[in-house]
Amino acid sequence: MTEALAANEAADEFCEDCGYEPELKRTLNGFQVFAISFASLSVAVGIFATYDDVLRNSGPVGIWLFPIVAIGQILVALVYAQFAARIPLSGSSYAWASRLASPKIGWAFGWLAVLSAVAAPVTIDNALASQCLMPLLGMEPNETTARVITVIVLVIQAILAIAATRIVGWVNSLSVGVELGILLVIGVALTVALVVTGNGSSGNLFSRGITSGDPNYFVVGGGLMAASIMGLSTLVGFETASNMAEEAKNPTRSVPRAIIGSVTAASVLGMLFVIILTVSITDMTKVSTTESPVAEIMTERFGPGFERPLLAAITLAFFGAALVAMVSGARYIYAMSRDGRFPAHKVMRRVNPRTRTPIPATLVVLAVGIILMALMPGDALLQLILAGAIVTILPYLMTIVLYMATRHKLDRTAAGFDLGRWEWPVAIGALAWVVISLFVVIASSATLTPIVIAFGLSAAGLLYFGYMWKFNREVLEHEPGDPNMFAEVQ
Question: For a disulfide at 245, which of 88, 188, 262, 341, Cβ 3.0-4.6 Å?
């Protein structure tokens, strides 16, 4: 028996000890797990979507907040890797909190994760439709058309997600390959252009651009602080790899490596990319006021013929990110449902015996996307997107606190990832960073609406929690499986 097969069997036995029959098919290899995590981060998509905000809010100098965010997010990723190496279960932070703290606390983790995950596919696909696909096809901007295209794309992604996890792995490997190609080709092309023409300005890197003279630039919630949105919206989502643990081969090794490797790669590649972009700006005012500064820089340097291939590549990167978000959302719903802690759990926990994917849970994510596209007005959808940033950071904060409170229950396995003597400095640094980043997101919000939406959606879940407490309290009192699995490790 090979080491890989032994690791897979050990992971399946772990699921059985936790009270679960392994139903999901373990098909994702190490690169595919990395690709899923990297696609969730989607550095090209994040920069493409937020570079204009940096130029308008802080000027080019704001890009230097990106490495600060990167260091903080790497610390958070290291904490997640500690958990992922020891509890390889679908649901990630939901499962960790349920097992190590209590099912009640775990439910809170799971509800926040579901809220963040089910809203992500539709928001990404709506940006894909309006910002990439419609311009690529030469279509005039139209909100209704964009919504119809969004629904069509969501249906295609649901079909892929239901068909097989292996197909999701293939599609994401392709999209990540294209995304890496985008960064490499554009980076090399711009670098060569700068060297050949000598027409570049390193002074751009420390320029305030069009924000020069802004009296609110340095205040709390002002332009400079708002520029952190590029890093905070790009370097999130690495935890998706841990949510796919029951479908990953050798998960105690492949998942921690994917988490750390993806956020590190995204940090380095993203920073190099924005440096090259910034140095390449020749008309600061024009680039800073356009809706798509990356495309404008490419047009300035190489002419309009480069924009269409760029849009095609970015479209595929968007598609991969949304597909991963849909799959991840379905896994959270499935994980909570098999524990009886999600509405209609008897249906939502079902896994198709042929495809070995949670079809009902996937259809819920699809249905939420269609409903949002059909009923939610544009301004409300924008506020929901902004609220998503808050809902994403809250689980990071909760997971770090969980680690600091329950680390004594985690086994220090030789085969798994382990921070060793660095775990306390890393955990404390991660906690400090997440508190700061949550403050930055809230302080930088133009209105209170996203904050109200975030906490409103979180509080809405308390209604179902109250229902379980009254009519099905058993599921909030006990975890399935061996109750002594996570006794204190001496």
Answer: 88
